[in-house]
Each structure stands twice: as structure tokens, then as C-alpha cells.
User: What shape does this take?
Amino acid sequence: GAVVSQHPSRVICKSGTSVKIECRSLDFQATTMFWYRQFPKQSLMLMATSNEGSKATYEQGVEKDKFLINHASLTLSTLTVTSAHPEDSSFYICSATTGHNSYEQYFGPGTRLTVT
Amino acid sequence: GQNIDQPTEMTATEGAIVQINCTYQTSGFNGLFWYQQHAGEAPTFLSYNVLDGLEEKGRFSSFLSRSKGYSYLLLKELQMKDSASYLCGTMDSNYQLIWGAGTKLIIKP
Assistant: This one.
């Protein structure tokens, strides 16, 4: 089956620093990748949709300059949280699809970010 | 607007059957999904319905009525490991997934 990996699985950083999270599709080409944020006991919140080779589409209320997304290849998308603050502490999950005809999103295992 | 409603929490007994309902209003419709999510883990795919009717997969079944904007996930022979959150999501005309808030299912022995 389709496998998506994320790295790192956990990261602790100091306030004001930047953190990069990688999302890789290991055995398929992901034309579209999604980045979600999930706060404790809440559902997934879509942050942005990322298509390979083009700019990400951000959801309303998500700061594009703070959450930088790069989808440089068909197997890799990165999310960089710039100048992180404690309120950015969350569970970040990526998912990938092979295209519009593929209905299933394959989720990565998630990255737990803690900003101190 | 777009909206998905599902109960916040449900409790059931091991070995029993539970039905988790989901109602939705979306702009365009390209299918409805159910995902299971254990605490601290990423969601895992359970089912996808795009046509009306019941889809059965082992202990889990999912039903869809497009005219009513309604779906349910039916879990039979409940096991303790089924304790999790169950997320209902629909895919709109832009192929974007809209998620419900999730239903936390608690299984008691």
C-alpha cells in the first residue's frame, strides 16, 4: 500500500526559531499533498494544499509567510514553521494523493511540535 | 456554507453494535469518507462512499444517502481496540476534503 513518512516525528524548539517538517511519499508519486494541524481533542484542520511545482493554496486564516510550504518534487513536500511561538505547538500531519481520480488520502504519521 | 455534523462522543459496550451518524452540507460532492484515529496517531482510512447504499467491510459498514446529506458508520462486534475518534469527511467539487469534528467512541467492557 501507499506509504507516507514524516520527519521528524517529534521536535521541541525554542520560541523564535524555525522548524522544518518533511513529508515524503515512499512508493508513489504524490501530485497533491495536504498539510493539517490538529490541536488536542480537536479534528484535523486543513492548513494548505500543495501541488508539485506550484505555489501552495492556503486556507483562510493560515499565514503563508509563517507556514512556508515547498512541494519541490512528486515525493517530497516540506512545511517550515518560521519564528515559532508556543501557540504553534500542535500535531502536524501531512497527507498525499496521486491526483484527482484518487479519492483516498494517505496520511503520514504526524509530527508533534512543542515550542518552549 | 459547508458543514459537517457528527456527535462529539459516544459510549458502547464490548461486543455490541454502534452507529455513528454524520450529516453534511457541501458545495458539490465527490464522496464521503470515514477515518479512524487513535489518540496521538494519524488517521487511517476506513471507507469511501460516493453512491447511495451500504458498503460492508468486515465488522465495519458505511451507508450513504446523498439526497438526505447523511451517512453512518456501523461498527459490529465491538472490541476494546475500537476505542478511537471517527472522522467523517466529504470531498467537495474541488476535491478538497472537509472534515467533521470527529466522534470519540468509548468502548466499555
